[in-house]
Write a structure and sequence with these properties.
11 helices
């Protein structure tokens, strides 16, 4: 008598053929008969999009083209005249603004800054274009433009706070630097569009090329980037108060350097956190200068006129 053929198990593979798994007993009773054990995939958050680096590059011999004239004109000559003729004879700023024709001084600045700007743009044009990636690497990256007025407003608040602190500690209000006084005297004789071009756009690019692009962006290939930031902040701030620094009056230096320190810190931190973006920090610096020029040319005259009208009203309304 022949043996009948075995009946195929309708519920999957026999128990002795089930694969081993952490839930082996579950499979023994026929759970998930099709194939081996498959773990349930765990949810993971999407990977955060990192801020891309603008790759400022390494130091090149071409960087000397704008660097040499800038260092000679804005560092070497003032230091030379200070050492030769004494501290009271230092060039630039208040002395220059008080002794020379403001229009002639402006034309000199326009020629110097215009020539150095052309050289800076020649050697850093590609880096400038690469740095625009901070606005384009994501669909909403352009919203970083809104950070520019926000950072500027933060600098204003920081300056107000530091003004109160200095006044509280010393009993004196922060003074206007010779550099600022000279610029204000020049803006009194030149048209708005000319001041906007030189002080609002060209000047900021030249300064950001040296103090952020070179001293932070390229130097950070050799030093820690935050150490480079400290170097940049110090040189930028004290260069703008060179007259006060060479005068030896440390109280005057303290009263004039604070606004430049806060501004320099803001520019440097913004440059680092935006991936060493020359485009972003240039726009930030230009926004600051353009707002200052708008206030100088349009807001202050209106405020002085309004003050005069209020004084006239008060004269006819004696208390």
């Amino acid at each position: 008598m022949s043996t009948p053929p075995p009946i195929q198990n309708p519920y999957g593979r026999p128990p002795h053929e089930q694969p081993a798994s952490p839930q082996h007993g579950f499979y023994q009773h026929g759970g998930y008969p099709q194939g081996p054990y498959q773990p349930v995939p765990q949810w993971t958050p999407p990977e955060r999009v990192k801020q891309p680096d603008s790759r400022p590059g390494r130091f090149l011999w071409w960087d000397l083209l704008p660097t040499v004239p800038y260092v000679v004109l804005f560092f070497g000559l003032p230091l030379f005249f200070t050492l030769v003729f004494g501290r009271q004879e230092s060039t630039g700023g208040e002395a220059e603004a008080g002794m020379a024709d403001p229009m002639l001084v402006f034309l000199e600045n326009a020629i110097i800054f215009g020539g150095i700007f052309a050289l800076c743009l020649l050697v850093s044009g590609k880096a400038l274009l690469r740095s625009t990636i901070t606005f384009t690497h994501r669909a909403i990256a352009w919203l970083k433009l809104l950070l520019i007025p926000a950072i500027w407003f933060g600098v204003i608040l920081a300056n107000l706070f530091m003004t109160l602190v200095i006044w509280r500690l010393t009993g004196q209000e922060p003074d206007t630097s010779a550099n600022q006084a000279g610029i204000e005297e020049m803006t009194g004789v030149v048209p708005f569009w000319a001041a906007l071009a030189i002080f609002g756009l060209i000047g900021p690019y030249v300064e950001e090329y040296f103090f952020r692009h070179l001293l932070v962006g390229k130097l950070s290939r050799h030093l820690n980037i935050w150490i480079c930031g400290v170097i940049s902040v110090a040189i930028f701030a004290f260069m703008h108060v060179a007259v006060e620094l060479f005068s030896g009056d440390w109280m005057l230096l303290l009263l004039t350097v604070v606004p430049y320190l806060t501004m320099s810190v803001a520019f440097t931190v913004a440059y680092i956190l935006t991936g060493r973006s020359l485009a972003f920090v240039w726009l930030l610096h230009a926004f600051n200068n353009c707002v200052a020029l708008l206030v100088t040319y349009y807001v202050l005259p209106w405020a002085e006129e309004l003050e005069g009208q209020l004084e006239a009203v008060l004269r006819v309304l004696p208390l």
